[in-house]
Inverse folding.
């Protein structure tokens, strides 16, 4: 589904990602661990194609199409979606409008379909009528992002810290819906969606089964492996120690 | 003031330049173009239909309590469907009601400037709208001042009265035929909101490049009265200057001004809203959104003057710049004359945030589509205080006006 080859990325003249290679197949979900500032978000924004993220080397292929130079909306049309960690507030554009837009409809009327989707995330009609992200709490931002993804239903979804700032009650709800969005509830042979989840806390991993885990350090993927093993190592020993353990075992 | 006094004062002010706005040579425009009256609004020539619609006028008169249409200097249509509501030409109303003369030039001084003087001396109708005491006319009244003749000077005097505990909702459109390349509109509007009454006044200006426009409006609000003005301008205009003023004279009198302006081309507008809070506990809110693109120049003024005990006023004006050759001057003013007041303002002028565009693109919109969603959002002020049906109607009109410019 997604093939990243020898990717080097600069942001404002500074190299953030260095020779990174990553493959995510159809039906697979990968999780990416790493400390703050290691380049995780930069990787997602580069896959999404935001203009400040300059690809200096390498390529990104999505569903067999070289998307390295495609504008964001073209990538989205190919079936890509994202849940942002810190989405911007837009005055006068309501969450309900965003849901309509994500569904490929005109913004404006908030109809029954939208209200039904929102209910699943405990989002009220009143909340749908609020300006998107304006005065939203951490948890509200996540639910709003995931609601938009539910409406969009992309084939490949990136989640940037879906668990940060979410209270314990909602993390299970969010985990459940992310699992559904990524076909995790289906038999492996029936899974068509793919995903890449960024987390530095790892909390969300209790609610989502993933296929592969990576640790990112200093702009590259420092180690990869089975999710349980990597998660345990990261949680118990920290990122750098985990990478050390990985390299002692040899390349995975 | 007798009629003689009024005329004398107007004569003396004939050459008095306005405090704001470019000076207009009134003599460049002529009055007197007359048109036949219509039996119904849909008899209005089809070529003008779109301009009428663009000004928010419903030609079928569906869901309207009354309709008024003035073409150039003639009132061509006026009808009332609702008991307790009066709607007619001001000229006719003055003949019918002897008492009406006491309302003339009480809110707007006749000698304010040469434009008010001109309207007194060369008046060509205008509308009179009145709701009787206790009558709540929830269905909107529509009125339209339409210009179809080149070089015409339309000089109207409008009087709007909501008697005690009555309610009046007005949609008014000022429009011009696309065949007209130069004309003048002078409009004096005096509003009287009596004790416990409410007026909502939604005005759509649908001008064109050659129009010079000088409205002069003032509102007097008595105890517990409410006045809400929604003003929309989305089309180019050569020069427009206005500074409507609400005098919240009574206890708990309330005034709200909401202004939405999209200024393209060489548009030059100087738009203000002023509230004078005289009554105890009176309140005002002034909200404005202005977008300037191409070479447009927008001056967005707002002014709240606190005089009465415990008065409260808030100004919120935002500007969005879409061009390096346009200009927005945002001038919010507050004046306090006693200590128990609560006056505040927030003003901001900026560009479209790149993050917003990227966010919308990440949901599948192209850059152009994202920009237009953000602009629409920027201008999308929730209009409060309107009956549901009217609010929906307003939203529709707003979307239509915006669709035309985007």
């Amino acid at each position: 589904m997604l093939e990243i080859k020898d990717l080097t990325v600069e942001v404002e003249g500074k190299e953030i990602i260095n020779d990174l290679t990553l493959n995510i197949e159809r039906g697979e979900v990968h999780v990416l661990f790493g400390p703050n500032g290691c380049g995780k978000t930069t990787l997602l924004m580069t896959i999404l194609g935001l203009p400040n993220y300059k690809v200096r080397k390498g390529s990104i292929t999505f569903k067999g199409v070289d998307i390295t130079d495609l504008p964001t909306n073209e990538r989205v049309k190919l079936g890509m979606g994202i849940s942002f960690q810190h989405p911007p507030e837009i005055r006068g554009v309501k969450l309900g409008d965003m849901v309509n837009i994500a569904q490929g409809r005109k913004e404006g009327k908030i109809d029954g379909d939208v209200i039904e989707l929102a209910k699943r995330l405990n989002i009220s009609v009143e909340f749908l009528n609020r300006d998107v992200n304006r005065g939203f709490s951490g948890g509200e931002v996540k639910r709003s992002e995931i609601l938009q993804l539910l409406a969009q239903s992309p084939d490949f979804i990136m989640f940037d810290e879906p668990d940060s700032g979410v209270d314990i009650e909602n993390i299970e709800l969010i985990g459940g819906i992310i699992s559904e969005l990524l076909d995790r509830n289906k038999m492996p042979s029936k899974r068509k969606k793919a995903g890449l989840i960024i987390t530095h806390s790892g909390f969300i991993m209790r609610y989502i089964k993933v296929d592969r885990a990576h640790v990112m350090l200093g702009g590259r993927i420092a180690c990869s492996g089975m999710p349980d093993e990597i998660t345990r190592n990261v949680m118990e020993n920290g990122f750098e120690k985990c990478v050390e353990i990985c390299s002692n075992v040899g390349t995975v | 003031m007798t009629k003689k006094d009024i005329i004398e004062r107007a004569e003396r002010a004939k050459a008095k330049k306005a405090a704001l706005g470019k000076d207009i040579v009134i003599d460049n425009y002529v009055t007197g173009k007359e048109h036949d009256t219509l039996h119904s609004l849909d008899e209005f020539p089809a070529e003008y239909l779109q301009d009428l619609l663009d000004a928010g006028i419903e030609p079928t008169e569906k869901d309207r309590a009354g309709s008024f249409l003035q073409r150039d200097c003639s009132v061509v249509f006026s009808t009332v469907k609702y008991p307790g509501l009066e709607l007619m030409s001001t000229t006719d109303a003055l003949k019918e009601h002897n008492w009406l003369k006491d309302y003339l030039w009480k809110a707007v001084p006749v000698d304010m400037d040469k434009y008010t003087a001109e309207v007194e001396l060369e008046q060509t109708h205008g509308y009179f709208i009145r709701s009787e005491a206790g009558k709540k006319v929830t269905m909107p009244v529509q009125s339209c001042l339409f210009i179809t003749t080149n070089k015409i000077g339309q000089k109207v005097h409008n009087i709007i009265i909501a008697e005690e505990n009555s309610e009046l909702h007005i949609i008014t459109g000022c429009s011009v035929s696309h065949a007209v390349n130069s004309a003048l509109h002078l409009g004096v509007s005096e509003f009287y909101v009596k004790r416990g009454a409410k007026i909502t006044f939604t005005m759509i200006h649908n001008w064109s490049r050659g129009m010079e426009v000088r409205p002069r409006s003032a509102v007097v609000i008595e105890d517990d009265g409410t006045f809400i003005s929604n003003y929309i301008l989305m089309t180019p205009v050569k020069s427009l200057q206005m500074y409507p003023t609400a005098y919240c004279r009574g206890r708990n009198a309330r005034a709200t001004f909401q202004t939405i302006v999209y200024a393209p081309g060489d548009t030059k507008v100087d738009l203000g809203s002023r509230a004078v809070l005289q009554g105890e506990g009176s309140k005002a809110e002034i909200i404005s959104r202005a977008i300037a693109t191409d070479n447009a120049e927008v001056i967005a003024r707002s002014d709240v003057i606190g005089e009465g005990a415990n008065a409260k006023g808030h100004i919120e004006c935002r500007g969005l710049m879409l061009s390096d050759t346009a200009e927005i001057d945002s001038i919010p003013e507050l004046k306090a004359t006693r200590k128990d007041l609560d006056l505040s303002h927030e003003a901001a002028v900026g560009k479209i945030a790149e993050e917003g565009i990227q966010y919308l693109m990440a949901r599948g919109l192209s850059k152009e589509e994202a920009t237009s969603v953000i602009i629409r959002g920027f201008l999308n002020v929730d209009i409060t205080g309107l009956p549901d049906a009217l609010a929906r109607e307003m939203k529709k009109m707003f979307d239509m006006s915006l669709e035309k410019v985007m």
